[in-house]
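Deliverable D2.4 — example input (structure tokens):
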């Protein structure tokens, strides 16, 4: 990627200018961060796994008609995506009480919620990504009422589909963080799914044991982060060996 212009440098991914107008190359790093970036580590192979898992899930969503920015995987760490205007919101869909949500409402972690709950957070690391309401969103013009309706409808559809997909792999989708962008096509604009979908942006628990298979293993110093990500990939049919270690990195289906 040294010959391409860096467009955006994030904590876990970089974006570079793409080979054609309206495209970007999304590069997945091995960096892991938590606690608003205060906790950091490099986990060998994590970026490769997230690239493949996100490719798989975005492709499945495309098949059911969910619009998203993914175009194709370029190599082990890079994928070609459509360039979008990112809506500055993190959209979290919660199915089970966990993490900060369980703490906030003094609920036992693992309690199934009466229905899926959607929360909005402002994408602003300096402000520590505060939770916001639809009134905040429209008042500060981060998104229009129509865009909010589209985001909510897509978020529900994505959550329902992925919950079923993971259930078939023996995994419970506890919650998921997704982001959306505006795709401009001539004078027409539509809201589409952007960023990534990987164990970095979801809580995934083993259906039988409730073992954590996601970024909480890093947040809570449980260890075995890339082993857990490899297990998710294996259950989805992406890996051809049972485990990929942090030392050697993942083994991928060609």
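Example output (designed residues):
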């Amino acid at each position: 990627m040294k010959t391409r212009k860096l467009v955006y440098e994030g904590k876990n991914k970089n974006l570079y200018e793409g080979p054609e107008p309206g495209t970007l190359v999304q590069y997945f790093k091995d960096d892991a961060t938590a606690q608003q970036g205060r906790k950091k580590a490099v986990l060998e192979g994590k970026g490769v796994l997230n690239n493949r898992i996100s490719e798989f899930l975005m492709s499945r969503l495309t098949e059911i008609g969910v619009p998203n920015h993914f175009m194709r995987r370029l190599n082990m760490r890079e994928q070609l995506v459509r360039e979008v205007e990112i809506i500055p919101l993190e959209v979290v869909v919660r199915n089970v009480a966990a993490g900060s949500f369980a703490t906030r409402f003094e609920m036992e972690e693992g309690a199934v919620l009466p229905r899926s709950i959607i929360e909005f957070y402002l994408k602003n690391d300096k402000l520590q990504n505060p939770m916001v309401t639809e009134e905040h969103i429209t008042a500060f013009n981060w998104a229009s009422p129509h865009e909010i309706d589209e985001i909510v409808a897509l978020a529900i559809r994505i959550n329902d589909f992925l919950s079923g997909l993971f259930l078939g792999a023996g995994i419970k989708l506890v919650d998921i963080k997704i982001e959306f962008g505006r795709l401009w096509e001539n004078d027409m604009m539509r809201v589409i799914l952007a960023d990534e979908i990987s164990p970095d942006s979801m809580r995934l628990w083993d259906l039988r044991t409730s073992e954590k298979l996601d970024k909480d293993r890093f947040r809570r110093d449980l260890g075995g982060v890339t082993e857990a990500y490899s297990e998710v990939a294996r259950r989805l049919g992406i890996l051809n060996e049972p485990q990929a270690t942090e030392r050697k990195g993942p083994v991928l289906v060609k």
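The CA atoms of residues 14 and 96 lie 31 Å apart.
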